[in-house]
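To whoever picks this up:

The parser on our side crashed when reading a file containing two proteins. I've narrowed it down to the boundary between the first structure block and the second sequence. Both blocks are reproduced below exactly, byte for byte. First block:
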Amino acid sequence: MQGSEFAPSATQRESLARHLRGLGGHGGVDFQDVTRLTWEDASFQAVYSGDVLEHVPDYRAALAEFRRVLRPGGVLVATYPFTDAESTVVRAKLTDSGEVMHLLPPEYHGDPISGGVLCFYHFGWDILDEVRDAGFSDARMVMPWDPEGGIYFGNWTLIAKR
């Protein structure tokens, strides 16, 4: 099993690593950019991305990287804000010069280090086409529900097979 986090600066990476150790984590923290993963092709049987893609301006590059590092038959499991609408809501985007252009009022999601991370997207059903365009098959949204396990309100979850 391999985990990864993202923090843009050395100070933030050390702060996040300290925070994770304080939660009981041990070992090093691998800091990766999901649009440029350093792992070899076909390294993993599964990739889990928990509430990450909405913060990635080029989420399509992240999907391509997830596919690249998955073995044939491997599975991507991802969560993110899902609107249950036909189309993805683009809240912000980067200009050609790399500046953030807000198309809707800025929305930030909690982060233990920076306090908040800008949300670029609330995904709609069209994300399934994007996932398939990235080379995945059998892409679908599921809603886990397990009252015996304490899951009474599911969170829409993407399951896609390479």
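<<boundary where parser fails>>
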Amino acid sequence: MDEKQFRENLQAYIHNELDQTLAIQMKAKMTEDPLARLEYEKEKRFDGLVAKHMVQEEAPYELREQVVASLAKKSWLSWIPRFDFDFPLLGRFATVGLIAVFAVVVLTSSTNAFPIFKASIERHIDCLGGRYSSEVQTDNLEEVTKWFEGRLSFPVRPPDLSVKGAKLIGARLCHLKEKPVALLFYEKDGHRMSLYMIDSTDMKFTKGKDVSKGDKEMYVRNEQGYSSLLCLDKRHSGVGCVIVTDMPESELIELMS
């Protein structure tokens, strides 16, 4: 195996993508040629550094869907000819460039969309820990509605979940990130639930799995052992609600349907 063939197959060898015959030839080349062995060690170390310093951040649901769709179209590009450039640094620059572009896309998407699921789950955990208690303790929907009048810039109409076995136990003013929200506390079959009502006018939310039903546009995501369901009622645009609980996802969807 000459040096050109060795360099062409080096990355594939590092990632265990070569067939057995080529892998044996690569190994033999490094045994016979100290410079080839040195090149292998340099490339291996470079790959390790790239993997170590890449920012590990969960991509938004919509971005992941776009990536999957893009990869699915890869076969349509198979007719494009591949060009072989004998420049050792070209692959490195391309790798770094792709990492930079991906990081910009992820950060931009995260910045433009309100992190409704992450914020609501974090606040729910705070409530379970006793950090946020009820400012008004009642199971009367009308009393809670009147209590919120003048306290927020949007109307608060607590959903009546009693017909499905969930009991309202109290409410308070709160924030999700910088957004003021109405926080309502419910209980059902021993499960604590935090329901947040938020002014959704002109807001772009990070969205989870689409579980929409009827007039309700709904998205759900599971993190840290909790299910968070975003519900946007098409009949009452401008105010959205998100509910967080540890009950099974299917039960939560049924409760809010």
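After patching the parser it read the second block fine. The helical segments are 3-14, 20-32, 34-53, 61-72, 88-112, 116-128, 141-148, 249-256. The longest strand covers residues 167-176.
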